[in-house]
Amino acid sequence: MLARLGFDAVTLDMQHGFHSTESVLRGIAGVALAGKPAIVRIPVGRFDMASRALDMGAAAVIAPMINDVDDARAFAAATKFPPLGERSWGPHRAMQLSRHGDVSTFMRTADRETLSFAMIETRKAFDRLNDILDVDGIDGVFVGPADFSIAWSEGAKVDPRLEEMMPAIEAIASAAKKSGKLAALYAADPGLVGRYRQMGYGLVATGSDTESLVLGATSLLERAKAE
Amino acid sequence: MLARLGFDAVTLDMQHGFHSTESVLRGIAGVALAGKPAIVRIPVGRFDMASRALDMGAAAVIAPMINDVDDARAFAAATKFPPLGERSWGPHRAMQLSRHGDVSTFMRTADRETLSFAMIETRKAFDRLNDILDVDGIDGVFVGPADFSIAWSEGAKVDPRLEEMMPAIEAIASAAKKSGKLAALYAADPGLVGRYRQMGYGLVATGSDTESLVLGATSLLERAKAE
Amino acid sequence: MLARLGFDAVTLDMQHGFHSTESVLRGIAGVALAGKPAIVRIPVGRFDMASRALDMGAAAVIAPMINDVDDARAFAAATKFPPLGERSWGPHRAMQLSRHGDVSTFMRTADRETLSFAMIETRKAFDRLNDILDVDGIDGVFVGPADFSIAWSEGAKVDPRLEEMMPAIEAIASAAKKSGKLAALYAADPGLVGRYRQMGYGLVATGSDTESLVLGATSLLERAKAE
Amino acid sequence: MLARLGFDAVTLDMQHGFHSTESVLRGIAGVALAGKPAIVRIPVGRFDMASRALDMGAAAVIAPMINDVDDARAFAAATKFPPLGERSWGPHRAMQLSRHGDVSTFMRTADRETLSFAMIETRKAFDRLNDILDVDGIDGVFVGPADFSIAWSEGAKVDPRLEEMMPAIEAIASAAKKSGKLAALYAADPGLVGRYRQMGYGLVATGSDTESLVLGATSLLERAKAE
Amino acid sequence: MLARLGFDAVTLDMQHGFHSTESVLRGIAGVALAGKPAIVRIPVGRFDMASRALDMGAAAVIAPMINDVDDARAFAAATKFPPLGERSWGPHRAMQLSRHGDVSTFMRTADRETLSFAMIETRKAFDRLNDILDVDGIDGVFVGPADFSIAWSEGAKVDPRLEEMMPAIEAIASAAKKSGKLAALYAADPGLVGRYRQMGYGLVATGSDTESLVLGATSLLERAKAE
Amino acid sequence: MLARLGFDAVTLDMQHGFHSTESVLRGIAGVALAGKPAIVRIPVGRFDMASRALDMGAAAVIAPMINDVDDARAFAAATKFPPLGERSWGPHRAMQLSRHGDVSTFMRTADRETLSFAMIETRKAFDRLNDILDVDGIDGVFVGPADFSIAWSEGAKVDPRLEEMMPAIEAIASAAKKSGKLAALYAADPGLVGRYRQMGYGLVATGSDTESLVLGATSLLERAKAE
Ligand SMILES: [Mg+2]
Ligand SMILES: [Mg+2]
Ligand SMILES: [Mg+2]
Ligand SMILES: [Mg+2]
Ligand SMILES: [Mg+2]
Ligand SMILES: [Mg+2]
After folding, report:
1. pLDDT band at E212, cuts 50/70/90?
2. For the HpcH/HpaI aldolase/citrate lyase domain, which residue ranges apply (chains A, B, C, D, E, F) (predicted)?
3. pLDDT of amino acid A187
């Protein structure tokens, strides 16, 4: 029944899914205790939840609609401790799930061991991509092809396979690579995974569930941490 | 027992009532499946919940304390798809409840079929009324007479029947009419419903319940959609 | 968008769906305030929730797996006030939603105005059908064809359209009619609605939603109350 | 940070932990999507939750305080489909998580692929151990040493390491083995794991978390399913 | 604003109020940390919640509709440790809130320091009163005058002030006193408090709140523990 | 067991603890009904929850990371009625818990009887301390020594006892005193309470619980209200 051992991460989606504060705070532990990274996608602008998700032991946070440098900075501020950001101290659950017993050690390594992904899904974000990538504390970008297709077609269509936008999507991966950051993406169509990987996307999320949990290949996360 | 068939909509109140993310995400479906519009009043500034409410099938969202054009634009951005706004794609539940099976059709009609009401309840908002009404994506204004009375009396009283403010309340309906937008209002005192309708208010909410659900006459919503 | 006005009731499913105590207590009001009967299907044997659902304003309760007279009596005890049953007094929310302002009047009419449906979905229940129907306080039976098909095929199949069981399903409607009780049924296949109605089923639930809310035609509930 | 890949299962504890219906229904998916078995410990006598946990995709259910054959039969009835038990059909989420696309195939294999553990933690249960083990549908026993020590000391002590009870604990593993069922146990003291394994316990749960999630070695579950 | 210092306990009502498992598990700590006893009224027959409430730090549990000796024994079994009852070990939160650091000491004193109240609210219960009072582990009886009035009037009225039942209510206090157990009661009408105290009721609950929290004078609880 | 009568307030922590909207809305009443002030610490920037906490009857709200005058003004706006702030009218639960029956009286006194604490926990906040203290509607400052130590050590350590920052912490109390506002602080180490009191801190919170509820001495709150 549970022949799913190939999956590498679980995303708890608070943007479009049914997850609430309650279910995310609880759900992270289940995934983490199962030995996999728990990733939380916060609602638009809810950077308070980004901090809380990390306190509870999330391995990564995805913030939708990071459209300019101010958005990116606010997101990084909420997810990285000073001096990099302004994350407040209180990672009670995360420490229990961690291998770092000492508080100062935990704090100094937390910024590196958890990842902040900025979603790039509008033309505005695309235009400011390099500036967003330059923000300290942003570990990578995450492309949302459905929203990107709406933006690219100026509201005419929702089509995560929209051919016209593919060069732009490839350009995002290249820019990320150049700036030494991660490139990730949701692939609604599993048939596109190979193509996205060729473009340079290290983390390609492919699954989805009625409760809006999404599975992703995290080999790239591991690599990032190892560096 | 259920001789309430005259009521036309149910508002789930997250601003002053007991509703949480969880109960709103679940409660919308119950109302929608009962064949009535589910309306959600979000907490002040929580535009992330405006998007989520629409994703879950809400027919309208009411945003309290829209006091200037920036507030109005942020609200419209969260509730309307591009190019009008910046609403992110993910209306899984809303599509199941909808009659539009095709995603692109759903998207193109969603902005018209769901309504965004900006609450006008401070002097500041009153002073900027026309600018707020001019914001694309704001479908109507909603007057909160209790807060308006506090503002009008400069903090001296809470009195939703305050006579001195009635000319201003009438002016709001007129301004809405002139700009081709909807005018709605909570009527704490059912005896005032007739007067408000004469002022030009199409949607007058009258009931309330310990769980802070509010009933409104939605004939006006239907009319808006028909246009 | 909300062209669903033909639907007549909403069932909040706690047996197989995602509903919890919290979401049911809240969700009932939304449906009731929309002017439609809220029906709650409780988990197997959770008669405490049957009482609570009625306290909160449910119009009917469906109890799964009522397999003998003891089950039926326990269910009736939880849903009907003395002397008929042992329902405890505390219908705070139900009274607010009701048209009966006086507590004693409310209590005396509540047993008649809310309905208790016993699910018949095993061979054991079928064998004891007349005894179950004879229990005072059981207002009707509700057939679950999926479970009934498992029982009828002795665990070989799940098939709500199983032809071999149709005579038994028809016999249930006849027995209900003879005892002056209601006959209801979930029709997974809308194509079977006509056939079930011909068998004598007054309430045929047909819809379903990912959150496990189910729609039913309640004309029969209205009739029952009018008698 | 997440170097916990050696763990094999996650238990969501509703008996003594903070888990509620809501958090369990949601939490199971997170664990299952992480590729590990989600196990739910239900509150005493709450067999309705045993069924719901399986509907949501739990791989196993642990029922505390199974003290006699009636308890064991009621538990098995709730967790196994007919003709073995009386589990009701509705595994919507479990099917999505499963590899069996066809409903009848899913049903026929579900009883074998999910496990029902009866907790043996009183003298009464110990005295009736063989009868409990003989109940069809009970896949194994699960020893709770803390409660067992209270019982064994007649209420004098709580001591999960109580030496006097160790022969009885060993006898439980032997009896399980003889009847071809699984033997599992919570080991509060990791130092005792080896000793328990020598006694014949295949699944020894060892971890615990403030939210009462417990980790176990599930190699035995896999073996059970393979047979 | 908070001039309520005279109140002595807070009851979280799961029978007729809005409380769920979630809100009770959380709410107990708030009351206990405020230095007052948290009392939980469970739903009818939900003895699993009685145990969980004590695990979380409740000072007392009230079980409605304890109508015979079997009900009383099942309630006592869930709330008292062996050898008196069958309460399972796991009082993690209660121990944190307690002054007993050692587990065995905590366990041996817990039965005495927490109270189990059986609600007497039907004629059947009244007829078996002495037998119920004789059950070890039942610390007192709690009268529900609203339900008792329905029973006494054979379903004719709900009237917590019903004069005809007053001699019976007085007899309950006398019987409790004779058996050395506590007598408690909800007084819907504060004007009756003096009369109830004269009858011998030590704990008379008088307040109520829309969220169904009830306040009671607990001087009697303190006395019970001091003995 | 409940010898905790010396404690004076209960803080429900939504920043780093497990509390959600749901549990806070419910939990406030339990604490308030126990006769103690309920204090809510909101997540960073979630001023919507500050308003809701007061609507539900909280006696005080603590806002973390108030780093400049804009933050302070936004916080005061959410917690004080006009003309002081922009708090919206809807204190249904707070009025039930209050001694002020008349709405206008309640409104006019609410701003004085509930307290807004701005957390000072960064260098930026320290540099702007006097400006923050000057904001009308900010009743006091609350020092978070863990975050302050991270800021003071420029991210090198988390140490709430950091000696180097103690002069700054003393300066905060002095500044508060000079501006006629309250000074409060969390003391992770109870041994430091005396020292903090000597510095001029009136409210020193000392306890903590796994659910992140924190106890504080509220003598200072009472004094503030009496003035
Ligand atoms: Mg997107
Ligand atoms: Mg308002
Ligand atoms: Mg069924
Ligand atoms: Mg146990
Ligand atoms: Mg009662
Ligand atoms: Mg802090």
Report:
1. very low
2. 3-213
3. 85
* Nearest by Cα to B218 from B110, B104, B90, B114: B114
Between these two residues, B76 and D225, which has the higher pLDDT value? B76
Q: Do the Cβ atoms of B26 and C23 come within 8 Å?
A: yes
Closest chain A C-alpha to F152 CA, distance in angstroms: 10
**ipTM computed for the complex:** 0.91
Confidence at E207, pLDDT banded by 50, 70, 90: low
Q: What is the pLDDT of residues F167-206, one digit of tens each?
A: 999 999 999 999 999 999 988 787 898 899 999 998 888 7
**Nearest beta carbon to residue E16 from set C20, C92, C104:** C92
Distance CA B110, CA B85 (A): 12
Give the whole-angstrom CA distance, residue A66 versus residue A17: 19
E146 and C89: CB-CB below 8 Å?
yes
Question: Taking CB atoms and an 8 Å limit, are C84 and E122 in contact across chains?
Answer: no
B10 and C114 in contact by Cβ < 8 A?
A: no
Distance between CA atoms of residues D117 and D137, nearest Å: 9
- The span from the CA of D136 to the CA of D116, in Å, is 10
Subunits adjacent to chain F (3 or more Cβ pairs under 8 Å): A, B, E
Over residues E127-139, the pLDDT tens digits come to: 999 999 999 999 9
Collect all residues with Cβ–Cβ distance below 8 Å to A225 and sequence separation of at least 6.
Answer: A112, A113, D1
Amino acid at E55: D
Q: Where are the alpha helices (DSSP H) in D82-136?
A: 92-97, 103-113, 123-127, 129-134
Q: What is the residue type of C17? A: G
Q: Please give the residue that has the higher pLDDT: either F19 or B72.
A: B72
Helix (H) or strand (E) holding A10: strand A10-13
Q: B101 — contact with chain A (CB < 8 Å)?
A: no
Q: Please provide the size of chain F in residues.
A: 227
Pairing of strands F203-205, C203-205: unpaired
Are the beta carbons of F156 and F197 closer than 8 angstroms?
no
Binned at pLDDT 50, 70 and 90, residue C45 comes out as: very high
**What order of strands is seen across the sheet that includes strand F140-143?**
F203-205, F182-186, F140-143, F115-120, F60-63, F38-41, F10-13, F213-215
Nearest to E43 among C48, C89, C92 (CB): C48
Token pair belonging to B166: 């009635």
Chain B residues whose beta carbon lies within 8 Å of the beta carbon of residue F49: 43
Task: Tell me the domains of chain E and their CATH numbers.
Answer: 10-226 (3.20.20.60)
**D11 — phi, psi (to 5°)?**
-105, 130
Q: CA triplet E220, E222, E224: central angle to 5 degrees?
A: 70
Distance D16 CA to ligand 4 centre (A): 9
State the best of F14, F18, F75 to mutate against chain A, taking most chain A CBs within 10 Å. F18
Amino acid D208: pLDDT: 61
Lookup: tokens for F204: 């020193």
Q: Which residue has the tokens 């149910």?
A: B10
- HSE-CB of B151 using CA atoms within 13 angstroms: 24
- Is C92 known to be catalytic? no
Residue C65: pLDDT above 50?
A: yes
Query: If you count DSSP H runs as helices and E runs as strands, how many of each does chain E have, helices first?
Result: 11, 8
pLDDT (tens digit, 9 = 90+) per residue, E35-78? 888 999 999 999 999 999 999 999 999 999 999 999 999 999 99
Nearest to C166 by CA among C218, C201, C138: C201
- Report the alpha-carbon distance of residue F188 to residue A189 in Å, rounded: 51
Q: B139: which 2 tokens?
A: 């479908």
CA-nearest of A89, A110, A108 to A98 is: A110
